[in-house]
Amino acid sequence: MPTIRAAILGFGTVGEGIYRILNERKKEIEEQTGYTIEVVSILVRDTKKERIPTPGVLVTDDIRDVFAQPQLDLVFEAIVGEEPAYAYLSEAISKGYDVITANKAMFAVHGPALLDQAQIAGVEIGFEATTAGGVPIIRTVKNLLAGDRIQKIQGILNGTSNFILTKMRQDEVSFKEALKEAQVLGYAEADPTDDIGGKDAFRKLMILSQLAFGKQADWETIEMRGIDQVTLEEVLDAGRCGLRYRHIAEITIDETGNLSGSVGPVLVGASHPFYGIDGVDNSIILNTDYLGALTLTGPGAGMYPTGNAMVNDYIQIIGTRKNELISN
Amino acid sequence: MPTIRAAILGFGTVGEGIYRILNERKKEIEEQTGYTIEVVSILVRDTKKERIPTPGVLVTDDIRDVFAQPQLDLVFEAIVGEEPAYAYLSEAISKGYDVITANKAMFAVHGPALLDQAQIAGVEIGFEATTAGGVPIIRTVKNLLAGDRIQKIQGILNGTSNFILTKMRQDEVSFKEALKEAQVLGYAEADPTDDIGGKDAFRKLMILSQLAFGKQADWETIEMRGIDQVTLEEVLDAGRCGLRYRHIAEITIDETGNLSGSVGPVLVGASHPFYGIDGVDNSIILNTDYLGALTLTGPGAGMYPTGNAMVNDYIQIIGTRKNELISN
């Protein structure tokens, strides 16, 4: 069986998730793809940190070691932040490697350039994991676009914010207390600014905009608010009126191709599809010409959901590559 | 641009939807696939019935006319009932044509045989439209299976039943009155037995079982109940307790590979994902090893949603065929 040699850049929750799934589902993935995948190197920040055993894998804190390995085929990238992730992926593409990323901060900014670069280099980019974790929204949008037209996208795209809003309503606790619980449970970062300020949801919206409409909105034209200004009193008042706060990112294309959108807390009633979406889930409504509305709901983050999205990207890419190999 | 020559068998709501979308989105589909699609023949029951104009297309009530045309590539089938649809598709496959079906009654029974026949003949079968109309559940399950394992499927799979239950609750009308309104609005057939008796949902569940678990449950082992025994009093009583009736079809695979399931009205509370699904929508929850739960919700029927599912199958099949052509 031919072998695909892969590197994993970043070995936090998501990087480890990829490694685990590739091992746990080794046989099924081989059956599905006709290829063995071998993780040959893992890039970490600190080589001394204790980790799950990765026998036979080069674990390094130097990207040059990764790229110096012979015959790399594919790079999984699960680093946080724009740089050096963008530089690494750009180099990987220029070397002819397929890349699969979970890095939304990087991809919202540099996705368009990377996609252009990849097209010229003839390599594939998987980015399912950048948006809504385990919810296959990227693939669903791609498939829909073939025979339909998307008019509007609305999403609960930040699980941390949704968890906090849910907690405030259900347990009648302040924003601050709910945030603390999210941090204890590992749903929020030590620095939660991007989550609670709306930036994380905004980035995912821009990634969806690029995919669905072929362009991002001008970033300055999208009003962006987080949930950090929502008070317990407002949440409870809303509840008494049968309403719930949801942090909603939305973007619409009009007849002339203009984009408009917003990111912020919105009150929804019981008939809104987002009314019942509690906890850390993400949910996205796609309005299209032919379907009316299609809603996808599922885990927006987590080791296995996000890792699984990246492994699915891998299987998809192998399918493409295999067809090319056959044709050569 | 190379041409795909297609026949449409059955020209009711769904058949007309396919024809409309293929025309309305002609340019986009050509750009996407690199192929022109030409509908060369339409099989109808009554050639004298008034229809939308289909210039240049052979409209016939004799299947032999369809199969006598030279160079057919693809058959869209949107007939109601097991026969003669199965015989037609079996003949189409034996002639080497790809087939795309929306016929759930036929496919629940003959799907396994058709899939076997297609594999031997080297042709493709699209059946996205058999289950949950415009909701891309078949493709989502197929993609998930590559890197994950499905444990359980739960669905609101019959839009007519869900509409009737919604109507009874919201308007406080009897089952009989709600059914009448569903018929007036075109949501229910003149003979609604299969919808309200649970058979329609049962068939879709078996199609999903075949796909997700590689086999159907023994039909006799699945308890099947419809909504026709649910009274207005029960609906209102449930409402007073914060509960709603949903008609749910579900199937689970256990560790040893045994299937168990049921089809029938179930009371759900406000935290259940189906609680908020009102009207004619379908909704499906997939429980998997890696994702936890993924929920898809959207239009379960209709000219455009169902036609669109079939056109998406076509685009998918062309992708497969194109890769094969390149490789030969």
Describe the protein.
The structure is a homodimer of 328-residue chains. The first copy, chain A, has 328 residues and is α/β, with parallel strands linked by helices. The first copy, chain A, folds into 2 domains: 3-133 and 304-327, Rossmann fold (3-Layer(aba) Sandwich), CATH 3.40.50.720; 137-300, 2-Layer Sandwich (Dihydrodipicolinate Reductase, domain 2). Chain A has 12 helices and 12 strands. In chain A, strands 3-2-1-4-5-6 form a 6-stranded parallel sheet, with helices on both faces. A 6-stranded mixed sheet of chain A has the order 8-10-9-7-11-12. In chain A, helix 4 runs parallel beside helix 5, helix 5 packs parallel to helix 10 and helix 7 (159-171) crosses helix 8 (175-184). The longest helix of chain A has 25 residues, at 303-327. The mean pLDDT of chain A is 95. The interface between A and B is large, with 45 and 45 residues.
Structure summarized in a few sentences:
Chain A is an alpha/beta fold and 328 residues long. The first copy, chain A, has helices at 13-24, 26-33, 63-68, 85-94, 104-121, 137-147, 159-171, 175-184, 193-196, 199-213, 232-240, 303-327, and strands spanning 3-9, 36-43, 58-60, 74-77, 98-101, 125-126, 150-156, 223-224, 244-253, 259-268, 281-288, 292-299.
